[in-house]
Amino acid sequence: MGEAPRLILGWREWVAFPELDIARIKAKVDTGARTSALHTHLIEPFRQGGQRWVRFGIHPLQRSHAESRICVAEVVDQRVVSDSGGHKEKRWVIETPLLLGGESWPIEITLTKRNNMLFRLLLGRTAIRGRAMVDPGRSYLTGRKPKPIPATVKALSNGPS
Fold first, then answer.
1. Whole-Å CA distances, 71 to 21, 55, 57, 151
2. In what helix (H) or strand (E) does residue 127 lie, and over which residues does it extend?
3. Distance (Å, whole) CA 103 – CA 79
4. Cβ neighbours of 123 (radius 10 Å)
5. What is the pTM of this model?
6. For residues 16 and 60, what is the distance between their CA atoms, to the nearest angstrom?
7. Does residue 76 contact residue 108 with C-beta atoms inside 8 Å?
């Protein structure tokens, strides 16, 4: 029995996070990064029902602040992460389904305030391990626009407000 076919990704792709109500965000597929990172302009941790949650704001469109989203997610961890420059930062970690190339699976994402980053999302190697291969010379191999969010995935569970 053979291995299931994998997605072939370019070095940048459009993705969606249905549970965060993010219909499209451009991701840099970064196999040099272990962890995925979402660049935010607001991070507010809080407790609800004994659980840790975080409210965070993002501007999903590259080079634009015209569109803004406030998202809420349960915290799964808080970790020290080293960025590409070797700087260490303690970051909140959430888990949410990623929609990419018509497929969906849960990934962990760290939240960070780094406004100088060109891409709002770095998709690290643990998010795509076993599911995709990367052709670093190409872009948007899953399409220029994200595929529609299936109705079964579309139901939002944004947690407490």
1. 8, 6, 6, 20
2. helix 125-128
3. 28
4. 28
5. 0.84
6. 10
7. yes
